[in-house]
Amino acid sequence: MATTDYDAPRTAAVEEDSLEELQARRAAPRSGAVDVDEAELAEAFELPGAEQLDDELSVTVIPMQADEFRCSRCYLVRHRNQRAVAEIDVCRDCA
């Protein structure tokens, strides 16, 4: 393995193109390739074993009850007997 002197002055690794080369590159005809939208390509792919569901998923949301609290770390709603400390809203799993 070769040693590297990190204190040595660096040399320019990138060579700059001359003005003539840049102008010639600009004047050269561009390819006829068309940019393709990646989202459009992704729609054509189907993952093996994946099911396409056209049904909307609906879940009944129940408001937080008086005997529940929201953990300040994991943000899950827990019953008050899952509280680690009475004064702090942190569940036993996060404590």
TrEMBL record:
<protein>
    <submittedName>
        <fullName>dUTPase</fullName>
    </submittedName>
</protein>
<dbReference type="InterPro" id="IPR025242">
    <property type="entry name" value="DUF4193"/>
</dbReference>
<dbReference type="Pfam" id="PF13834">
    <property type="entry name" value="DUF4193"/>
</dbReference>
